[in-house]
Every structure is written in C-alpha cells, then in structure tokens.
C-alpha cells in the first residue's frame, strides 16, 4: 500500500505544481493594454482628457516619443482648457471601435467680461483689482499677449509636469476631471508618437497555494516511496520453517583470528538507509523553494481585509461652491518658486525680475529698497520671502480669474512664521505675492477650511463682517492716530496688538528726539491712512474672515519759522528718496504697512484681532 499511496501523492503533486505554474505562465494572459494615439494634424499642443484616461481601470502610463524636447503636464481639465483658450490644439477622442484619434480645436470667441456677483460667506466671487471676470480668461491685456508659441513649461496651473529629451515615460494616476497637455516647446508641433498604457488585473491567487501544496505532496510521496522500499528489503526472501540448530558454543577468538584473520565491522545498514533518505528529500525541498521564489504577492489570496480608515470630522461644503484654486502640493511649489525668484531679484536689485512674482504693496516696497541700496552702500536688504515649509494653505474656491490663496510659511532658521497672499491674474500669468506679514509667536489663527475644499473670497464691501474689508484699513489708521479716543478703538483687541504698541513707542521716541533740537523752529507730525492697494478677504469656518490691508504712515517735518530750513544731514534714506538734502518747506516720509486681521462676523462680541504685520519705507518727498 505504501507504493500505491506514494504514486497517488506524486501524481497529485505533479498536477498541482503544473496547474500552479500554468496559471503564472501560459494561462496568465497580458499584464497591460496599450492604446496608440493617431495624430493627423500638426499643432503645437496635444490634450488627452481625463475621461479618456480613466476609460480603463488602474493607473495610466503615458509614453511620448519626439525628435527633441518632450513636455507633458497635467492639471484640472478646466484649467488646461483655459490656458489653451486662445490657441489651436489637438484633442484626443475615442472612436466607436475604441481607437484613439485627434480632432482639431479652434480658439473660442473671447467672452464678454461679466461682473462677478457680490460674495457672501456661502458664495464665491473674485475681489480686488480686475474683479470683472468669467470662468475662462478675461484679462484683455494678458489675452492679447497669449499668442501661439507660448511654452507651457513652468505654468502655475499644472499640478505636475515632466520634461525630457526624445522620450518621456510618465506614470500617472489621474481622476476624470484632470487632463494631460503634451507639447515640444509651444512653437514646434507636438510629438506625434503617443500612447497610453493601462494595467490589466491578472492576479493568480491560487498559484502559490497550488505550488506549495504540490511540493508538500511530492515530499510525502517520496517519503512513502522510500518507506515502501525499506519495508520490501527487510522482508525479502522466502519464509521457511527452520531445522533444529546445534547447541551454541563459545567461539575461541584466538583460533578464529589465526585461521581466518580479523574481520572489521562496517557501518550499520540502518545508518546508510537514513543517509539515502536525506539525499532524496534534499532535491525535493530545493525544487519547491525554487518554484516559490518566482511567486509574487499576486500569486496568493489576500485573506487579510484592508483597514477601514477611521472617521474624521467633516466639513460641509456650501452648495454651489467651486473648486479650490490650488492644491496644497501646487501651493508649496508656487511659494518656493516665488521665494527663489524674489531672492534673485533682491540680490541683483532687479525690479523687473521682482515684478514677475511680486505685486501691490510688496512690489512697491521692494522697488524702494532697490533704489536705496543702489545709492547707499550699507543699506540693508529686505526681509527674505520664506519658501518652505508651507504649513497652511487656504485657496479661494473659484474657477475663474483672478484667483488667490492664503498661505502660512515657517522659517525654521529665523524661528518665525509668515502669512501671505498670492494672486493669479489670468491663466497665463504666474501667481504673484501681494501681501506678507510676520505672525506673532502667540498668534491664534482662526479655524480654516481644508485646502482640498477652499473658501470664498469676500467682496470689499461685504456686509456680513464686523467691518467691511474696504473700511478696515481706515478704521485701524484712525486708531493708530487717536488711540483710545478713536470711535473704532473698542472694535480692536489691544492686548494682542504688538504692532500698535510698537508704533506708539516709536512715534514717542522720535518726537522726543526731535523736540530736543528742533522744537523751536520746526514740527514733526504723524498720520496714518488707508493704503492705495485693494484689501483681500477670505472666509473662515466661523463665518468670519482673514482680511489683508495696507496702511500708509506718513511722518511730516516742516519749519515753523520763516527763516528756518529743514536739513537732512543724518538721514541718507530720505535724502536719497527726496532727491534733496534741505528744504524750506519740509519733508514727508511714507511707510507702507501690510496688516492681516481676523474680522468676526457681524453682530459678534469678539473683537477684531491682528494676526500679522510687516512695515517698510515706501517713499520720501519734499513738501
């Protein structure tokens, strides 16, 4: 019976191992499917829509072959279409038989500018300069400059981009609302050899168990076979009834040795038998291990269920809210690029380069700094714009332009954090930094919406806040000038306002110094007013808003005696900006303040809190 069971085990082992190997080889089938794009027209851009990329399940692999530089990027479909609004390009479509072909898309007529509706905490609309916009690009000046030949590389709209020579292979995992744009340099025709590959689910979860089970049965069959042979050898020969044996007598060893020599004992047969079994079992184990070494994780059944993520606090998205302007990864890249460009501009004192990434009050301050550093050898450089890490991103939820986002960046070296506002005027213009301020060490930020949801940007005259954004700067300027006597003093939190305390102390110190020498012949006065730059307001989760404003502080020195003259012997800064070292009428110096406030909702008993601030000299002039 041992031989019978051994044969059965070996046959079953052979079948199981063969079936397992067959599943991983001849029966497995292809691991991927590839679709080639047939391009008929030469255009500088090629677009593959996300709906087509997700036609087959699984991640996508894009393969592009060209004769020179090959560029590919992906972004939201609406953003890709907006960037190409003024250009002719090829759009990949799928025919009824499943093949991929292209159709030419011509520029759509430029839409008329529409005024966005007034924003509320539950709706979205752009604010500030250029608020008249549609969902596509409507900035006339930028649209006129957007001519064919525009290179898509480096656009702030792309979530990620790839650029190589001749051959580009990019692994993607895009949802249906994303699209891919392919180009050479925006001037030359886009590459024409393009294909998309999707994986095919061809796992063989029972291949591993079959091979392992077959290996175990093979080992059992070999053991049974060896035991059968051993049993036969022990019991071989006829079994006969024996004759009576003579009485056993002791053997004289001395005689035996002298007659026949000494016979040495050999190794017992049982020991030899065990050696042969080990010798036979070793190849069986080696074969099984060799077969298992080629089995990957998809050759085994997945018996352990995937972990269910724990529920997190949900944020209710207001009905009709649009998509966030940027993702967190996109914002991080933009902020770092802004930081690098501004650092280069600061080093070279290049206002034109700075203007590619700065705007508003910040650009005006930088331009003044470059002028002073060109004339005064030891004049300090402006405070650097931190680039990373980006701790907080709050994008505006808006599909059109201009669009903005708020970010908080930590500077580990300086042990400070900066809050900033960046705005993109149209699809072709990069994001520009317009407001920046240093956050205090004990600053309590309001609760903000997640970056993947975004928040509404509020209109300058929004009536839903304790103070409308366009009245905030003038109210705070009045508090700086009048202190507790201001009608707005009770609306602002004085305890957390380090900027206000610093302004009061600085004005007192400077006035005391001036009165020691010039009180009899001149006067020094201080005043503050709302800046010339539009405010920025974005909603928080408590129905309040973070509002960024600019304030202009002006120091005025003028003579009170007709014979007196104001001289700038020890003030090279004002002398450089004013272009004079003395004046009979006096001088004025203007400082630019950028301030970030948290403004509660209307009717709240909570005061307006200062979150961050920065200040720099803006201009000097002769009265």
Automatic annotation (TrEMBL):
Keywords of this entry: Membrane, Transferase, Transmembrane, Transmembrane helix
DUF8094 domain residues: 323-617
GO molecular function, one term: transferase activity
Extent of the signal sequence: none
Stored Pfam families: DUF8094
Keyword Membrane (UniProt): yes
Transmembrane segments: 206-227, 279-300
Region (Disordered) location: 97-156
Compositionally biased region (Low complexity): 111-138
UniProt keyword Transmembrane helix, yes or no: yes
Protein name: Glycosyl transferase
Organism: Microbacterium schleiferi
């Amino acid at each position: 019976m041992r031989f019978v069971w051994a044969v059965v085990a070996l046959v079953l082992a052979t079948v199981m191992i063969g079936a397992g190997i067959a599943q991983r080889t001849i029966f497995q089938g292809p691991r991927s499917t590839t679709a080639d794009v047939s391009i008929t027209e030469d255009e500088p851009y090629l677009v593959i829509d996300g709906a087509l990329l997700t036609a087959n399940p699984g991640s996508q692999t894009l393969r592009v072959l060209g004769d020179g530089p090959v560029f590919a990027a992906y972004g939201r479909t609406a953003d890709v279409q907006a960037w190409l609004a003024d250009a002719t390009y090829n759009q990949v479509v799928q025919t009824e038989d499943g093949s991929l072909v292209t159709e030419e898309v011509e520029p759509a007529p430029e839409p008329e500018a529409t005024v966005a509706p007034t924003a509320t905490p539950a709706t979205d609309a752009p604010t500030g300069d250029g608020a008249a916009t549609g969902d596509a690009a409507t900035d006339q000046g930028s649209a006129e400059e957007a001519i064919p030949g525009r290179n898509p590389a480096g656009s702030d709209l792309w979530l990620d981009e790839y650029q190589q020579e001749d051959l580009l292979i990019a692994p993607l995992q895009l949802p249906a609302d994303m699209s891919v744009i392919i180009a050479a340099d925006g001037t030359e025709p886009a590459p024409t050899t393009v294909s998309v590959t999707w994986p095919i689910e061809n796992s063989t979860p029972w291949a591993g168990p079959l091979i392992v089970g077959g290996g175990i049965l093979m080992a059992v069959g070999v053991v049974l076979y060896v035991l059968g042979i051993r049993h036969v050898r022990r019991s071989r020969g006829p079994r006969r009834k024996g004759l009576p044996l003579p009485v056993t007598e002791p053997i004289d060893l001395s005689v035996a040795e002298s007659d026949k020599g000494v016979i040495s004992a050999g190794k017992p047969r049982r020991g030899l038998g065990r050696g042969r079994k080990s010798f036979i079992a070793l190849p069986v184990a080696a074969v099984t291990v060799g077969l298992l070494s080629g089995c990957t994780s998809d050759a085994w059944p997945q018996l352990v269920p995937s972990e269910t993520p724990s529920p997190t606090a949900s944020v209710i998205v207001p009905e009709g809210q649009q998509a966030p302007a940027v993702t967190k990864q996109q914002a991080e890249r933009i902020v770092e690029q802004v930081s690098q460009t501004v650092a280069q501009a600061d080093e070279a004192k290049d206002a034109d380069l700075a203007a590619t990434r700065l705007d508003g009050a910040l650009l005006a301050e930088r331009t003044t700094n470059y002028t002073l550093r060109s004339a005064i050898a030891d004049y300090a450089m402006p405070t650097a714009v931190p680039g990373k890490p980006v701790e907080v991103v709050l994008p505006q939820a808006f599909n059109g332009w201009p669009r903005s986002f708020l970010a908080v960046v930590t500077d580990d070296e300086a042990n400070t954090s900066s809050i900033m506002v960046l705005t993109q005027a149209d699809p072709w213009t990069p994001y520009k930094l317009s407001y920046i301020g240093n956050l205090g060490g004990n600053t309590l930020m309001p609760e903000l919406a997640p970056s993947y949801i975004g928040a509404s940007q509020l209109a300058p005259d929004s009536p839903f806040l304790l103070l409308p954004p366009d009245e905030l700067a003038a109210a705070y300027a009045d508090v700086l000038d009048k202190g507790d006597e201001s009608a707005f003093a009770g609306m602002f939190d004085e305890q957390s306002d380090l900027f206000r305390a610093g302004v009061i102390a600085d004005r007192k110190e400077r006035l005391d110094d001036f009165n020691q020498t010039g009180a009899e012949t001149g006067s020094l006065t201080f005043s503050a007013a709302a800046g010339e730059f539009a405010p920025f307001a974005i909603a928080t989760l408590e129905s309040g808003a973070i509002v960024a404003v600019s304030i202009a502080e002006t120091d005025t020195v003028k003579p009170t005696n007709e014979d007196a003259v104001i001289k700038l012997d020890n003030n090279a800064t004002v002398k450089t900006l004013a272009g004079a070292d003395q004046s009979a009428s006096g001088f004025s110096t203007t400082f630019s303040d950028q301030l970030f406030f948290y403004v509660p909702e209307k009717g709240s008993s909570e005061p307006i809190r200062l979150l961050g601030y920065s200040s720099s000299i803006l201009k000097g002039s002769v009265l």
